[in-house]
Amino acid sequence: MEDVLDLYAEPEDPERPRVCFDECPYQIISEVRTSLPMQPGHPERYDYEYKRQGTCNLFLFVQPHVGWRHVKVTARRTTLDFAHCMRDLVDIHFPGARVIRVVLDHLNTHTPAALYEAFEPAEARRIVRKLEFHYTPKHGSWLNMAEIELSVLSDQCLDRRLPDQQTVVQEVAAWETRRNAERATIDWRFGTQEARTKLKRLYPS
Predict the structure, then answer these.
(1) I need a surface site. Which of 24, 64, 123, 177 has the fewest CB within 10 A?
(2) Do the beta carbons of residue 64 and residue 152 sit within 8 Å?
(3) How many CA atoms lie within 13 A of 84 on its CB side?
(4) CB proximity list for 114: less than 8 A, separation 6 or greater
């Protein structure tokens, strides 16, 4: 726990960016009947019936102190999908970084071994050498600020029926562009000293 909290407390370093990473499933839903458009005095109205169109997965990267985030929508959440996200982080989002410090949980796919499963050993090693994983403790995934950003995404963008994966991609991209333009940051106020006081019961006595 203190490893993650100390990382959050460090000053920003462009050569060693901090990135929180998390993922969540999203159920794709289409309408059975056409909704009634908004009118004066009445919001847009939806029928209670809907049709399930499967699911997709949202991988989210966020720099909580900088105000940058990116969401990658995929059909599945597999080891290979995670590996490709990490390669994107290294090659597309932070190509000039010396090392990228990634906060993530202990999901079974979140390991350096995923890179070796997805890519040739030399390529996997190249990517892994640019990554420094900082894992949240078991039952402590709330320490990952990416969970906060996923909650914002859910409230501001995904709280409606989206009928197919392409629509999800478009709507999430529009949300991402707007929020990045606002440079919306996360005001994290829980540090190591607060943890030692408020979570004293979790420390060895």
Answers:
(1) 177
(2) no
(3) 10
(4) 79, 80, 82, 83, 86
Examine the pLDDT at 161 and tell me if it is beyond 90: no
CA 74 and chain centroid, separation: 13
Give strand pairing partners of 131: 100
100-104 and 18-31: which strand pairing?
Answer: parallel
Confidence (pTM): 0.88
> Which tokens in the block code for residue 60?
């989210």
Locus of tokens 């462009």: 14
Residue where the block lists tokens 């995670």: 82
- In this structure, which amino acid lies at residue 32? V
Cβ within 8 Å of residue 132, ≥6 positions away: 99, 100, 101, 102
Q: Give the 3-state DSSP-derived string for 104-161, with helices as H, strands as E and coil as C.
A: ECCCCCCCCHHHHHHCCHHHHHHHHCCEEEEECCCCCHHHCCHHHHHHHHHHHCCCCC
* Helix pair angle (79-88, 121-128), 10° resolution: 60
User: Model confidence over 37-54: pLDDT tens digits?
Assistant: 777 887 776 655 667 778
Nearest to 35 by CA among 49, 56, 22: 49
Share of the chain above pLDDT 90, in %: 74
- Separation in Å, CA 60 to CA 48, 85, 145, 173, 192: 30, 9, 11, 12, 25
Alpha carbon distance 7, 18 (integer Å): 8
